[in-house]
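F.,

This is the one I mentioned.
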């Protein structure tokens, strides 16, 4: 909540003093809300949401559904996508799509994004069209956000996944610098936040991994190793090990390429994961 209020205010280019004055509030209250030291009452929170035109659920990172079965179905779809079993994933997705209430922005975003992915996988749309449709999905929950503003905000996990897929499409179009720039902007948003990055473990870990892979592909080995090291330290600091092995193996691979002891392999470990 603190991050969302702060970043939306900055996107509106208004100071804490200006917001406080226009809402007849104390500037210190705005400051305490944005630093997470104070949780606003329902009325205050609603006033801030209306003022900043926030129509999405705060901290919404998954689907909005009353039936737990639908969330389980979404998890099964993610697993099938992870293992590239796209036919099975689409079958499950079609079942979910029929039952998912679309009155919530999170659900609309999920549908627009997943439709784009399956169409791209089946060759129905080009990489450029996929980028356009993924951007449309992203803007469902971030309608005030321009791509160049990404370093000023903190994305939720699903928004980060969408940006990651856009970067993949830029990579396929041989726009590698654009892909790297996009991922680095998102990472800066997390790193500039007053909230510890460990609370965004999945998103930040994904960005470290993908930036290392992107730089390695561009033969920028020092930068690739830098993000490998960041990824390893981040996994240890968070006391997690989800992709620790990948980071270590990728680090070894990069060092071998850097010293020319091994030619570039055809198999790249975990290339731009998450769909």
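My design for it:
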């Amino acid at each position: 909540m603190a991050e969302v209020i702060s970043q939306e205010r900055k996107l509106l280019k208004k100071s804490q003093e200006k917001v406080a004055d226009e809402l007849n509030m104390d500037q210190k209250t705005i400051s305490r809300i944005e630093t997470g030291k104070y949780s606003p009452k329902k009325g205050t929170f609603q006033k801030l949401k209306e003022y900043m035109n926030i129509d999405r659920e705060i901290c919404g990172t998954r689907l909005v559904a009353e039936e737990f079965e639908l969330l389980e179905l979404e998890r099964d779809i993610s697993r099938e996508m992870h293992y590239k079993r796209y036919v099975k994933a689409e079958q499950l997705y079609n079942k979910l799509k029929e039952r998912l209430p679309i009155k919530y922005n999170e659900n609309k975003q999920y549908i627009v994004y997943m439709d784009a992915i399956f169409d791209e996988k089946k060759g129905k749309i080009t990489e450029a069209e996929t980028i356009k449709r993924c951007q449309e999905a992203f803007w469902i929950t971030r309608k005030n956000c321009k791509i160049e503003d990404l370093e000023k905000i903190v994305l939720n996990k699903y928004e980060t996944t969408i940006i990651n897929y856009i970067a993949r499409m830029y990579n396929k179009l041989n726009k590698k610098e654009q892909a790297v720039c996009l991922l680095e902007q998102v990472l800066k948003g997390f790193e500039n936040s007053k909230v510890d990055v460990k609370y965004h473990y999945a998103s930040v870990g994904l960005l470290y991994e993908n930036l290392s892979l992107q730089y390695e592909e561009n033969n920028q080995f020092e930068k690739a190793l830098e993000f490998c090291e960041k990824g390893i330290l981040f996994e240890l600091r968070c006391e997690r090990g989800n992709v620790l092995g990948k980071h270590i193996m990728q680090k070894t691979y990069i060092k071998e390429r850097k010293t020319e002891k091994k030619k570039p392999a055809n198999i790249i470990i975990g290339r731009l994961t998450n769909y």
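Residues 117 and 130 are 7 Å apart (CA to CA).

Talk soon.
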